[in-house]
Amino acid sequence: MKTLKTILLTLLFFSILTNCKKDSENKSETELLTDGVNHEKTSEILYFENKEAFFGETHLHTKYSLDAFIGGNRLNASQALKFAQGEEVLLESTGKTMQLKRPLDFAAVTDHAEYIGEMYSVLSPNSKAYNNEQAKSLREVNGLEEGLKLFVELVVKNNRSSKPQHLEFYEGTMSTMSAWEIMNKQTELNYKPGKFTTLHAFEWSGAPNGGNLHRNIIFRDTIVPDLPVSYIEANRETELWEWLDNISRNGSSVLAIPHNSNASKGMMFDENMPNGDPITKEYAEMRQKYERTIEIMQIKGASEVHPNFWPNDEFANFENAQSLENYSGRSFEEKNFVRYALKKGLQYEDELGINPYKLGFNGGTDNHNGLMSNVEEDNYSSGSHGYVDATAQDRVKNTVDGWAKAYDINPGSLTGVWAPRNTREDIWDGLYNRETFSTSGPRMKVRLFAGYEYKDSYEDYNSFVKDGYAKGVPMGGDLGVDLEKTPKFLVWALKDPMNANLDRIQIIKGWYENGELFEKTYDVAVSDNRLKTDGTITPTDAKVNLTTGEFDNSKGSANFMTTWTDPDFNPNNKSFYYARVLQLPTARWTQWDEIKEGVKYPDNVAKTIQERAWSSPIWYSPK
Amino acid sequence: MKKLLKDPFLHFILIGVILFALFRLVNQTTETKNTIVINDFDIENIISTWEMQWKRPPTEQEIQNLINVNLKQEIFYQEALKMNLDHNDEIIKRRLSQKMQFLSNDIAAMIKPTDADLEDYIQKNKEKYLTPYSYSLYQIIFSPDKRDNNLKDATDVLNLNKNTSFEEMKSKGDALPFNYHFTNINADELALQFGTQFSEALVNQELNNWVGPIPSGFGYHLVFITQKTKPELPKLEDIRKEITRDYEYDYQKELNESIYQELKKQYDIRIDIKSPDFDPEFVKYLQEKLNN
């Protein structure tokens, strides 16, 4: 019997090996996948008549991103998506396990399209280039120092130059297609309509001379092209839009979401197009067509405002990643920030007839360690980038190469989407319609409506929201023009049940008048009766216990619901309005590190922060 | 017998026999010594590899060169095999052992689980697939936003309203954007709305009475639970995709291990460590461990 088994096994081995050479390809990565993807029955998908806020991630890297792999990330899309659904994952580089406190509602994996083909070769033992020296050195990287050397050699010199190239062992289009296919399959397998939505996506990582122009490309359905487009084929955003236009003609529905305008060296909202000419109507049209929201905050800083240029915004000093200016020849400029772009967009609309920067807000992490939306300050024990910030001891001293000090990085932000159902179509449509908001981490919810026929006050939430839709437009929309009437705004916010109470809601208004741009901030709802008769507000005295991390929930509000009218409304001015919700102070992640790990951060590192949410704007556009 | 039919190793053997037979049928003519045949399949492979790299088809001259290069590689490869040059080469070892694993993975993938297999699998991994608790309940909130002492208010209302109607009770709490009445809401959804502290506290509450105060991020709640469904195993149909994926993954691992163990039985593993750096007890321990 023994020998028979041996003979049979050996024969089996050789017969299969000679006859099925082709068969074993792809097996290393696809082995976990079944062929027939059929989604579970759809009858139980909950429908929310007045829409519900779904929280998710729109920006995350797995081992298929070259820089993430070098940083020690060994999670694939499926594992990252499992983490998003609340499962525990093991980080191989440190041996630590990580888990979200609460599962997400939706998620997109956005690997850098540039080198997914190379990563396929690195990860597939049957690929020709698997044993190439460079591919081997990638697999064998151990720890930060070695990784850094390779990172500089392969990524920085290459991808942040003006003409990036494939690595020497690139096997061609087929390898890119294989990688893309694997990623899409894993995305598909984790889609549970009604419960957990996955979106097909990738990141186009254009960064000419280190100026960040990255965009995440997100698809509505399974109609995706055979190949993603990368910085190597499309050198600037204009070429990217052309590509998007092309695939749209072939049936894809697709969005491009820019991020890190704060690090764009003046290029994200430049007055000139890539060819050096001033922005044209055609450019503005393409931009508005595909770029509906912007990632207003992520691990490498918030892009809303900066205290240098908004000295009167008392809340502008928030996760600005100040040391960005010390690396890659960057400096802070007003025109890198979203509030500037929103105002400038009004001017373009006046001049060109179309607003190129009609941007709603969403959030993401850009985590390179595979941890989807790991946004909670007290759960940042594995950092966001890999080896460089994997432990508190690393975070105290290290620099995320080319970007910022590890202690200036934050855990990133969340996207909230108002949608009637948690399905791919509904989530994507919410993004497209800009009925979205971003939070700096907590799951607070914010609603904003504008219309002319609203009541001055509402008894309950349901009639408030119902009127919101019936008699006006939600966030992300356009308030129609009625020169005879004054509009009203319905503003609402609800705290995160597992985080601090709310401090206040502000409405931020920008407008264009007589060739000039203006802005003004209004406090429309404030907790604890702190609004004084002169319109100013006593700052909250809610404290954070710096030795335990506890916040003070005896102050603040759980919920705001109010009707607001703009006291300075001028029906002739093009304008926008967005809401900013502030939470009471809580401990920043660095403080949690000091409490839990006994490390000490420099004194200039913030100990507490006021987390916040930003609603997408509503625009008012008289001719 | 039933157990034997389920033995992965038996499956392995049966498939082996079939493949062996097929192999003999297909390959009768080509097995001659020292002949190298380059057929359509090979040439197609050569050309498509070239096209991948150069994004154009090769010229005739280039095809000839490519064949030459491949031929040289094949002949050297054959001769190297004869000279046993592949022996004890670390890279070849690793690669071949990997291929063995792929083989067993392929074989595992051929065997599609039956419904009975899946049902059995669910039973064995119960805790992983149990649905969360689910409730039908009424709740009112006492929010600190509007009260000086919301805990006391909640307690007072509870004590004074043991038999108040649902209609009346509704107005005792504060207006927050939540339902008063939930039907069949599971603990996960409750946790998303009110936080995990709240949903976890419901497990041990008595039914059909107003109970509380139960804290959440929004204040103190009074709750009237009319129905509680304990965690249960979902029906196979509802989680077929998930179960099949998990089953196949586990089965693959199992088959891999069983093949390895079978093969290992053919070998006598001896530890021959004489270095004084090692404790002889440890060597003995190793010897025992590795043969099990």
UniProtKB/TrEMBL annotation, chain A:
This is Uncharacterized protein DUF3604. It comes from Xanthomarina spongicola.
Automatic annotation (TrEMBL), chain B:
Its EC number is 5.2.1.8. GO terms for molecular function: peptidyl-prolyl cis-trans isomerase activity. Signal peptide: none annotated. The keyword NAD does not apply. The chain crosses the membrane at residues 9-26. It catalyses: [protein]-peptidylproline (omega=180) = [protein]-peptidylproline (omega=0). It comes from the Bacteria. Residues 132-227 form the PpiC domain. Keywords: Isomerase, Membrane, Rotamase, Signal, Transmembrane, Transmembrane helix. This is peptidylprolyl isomerase.
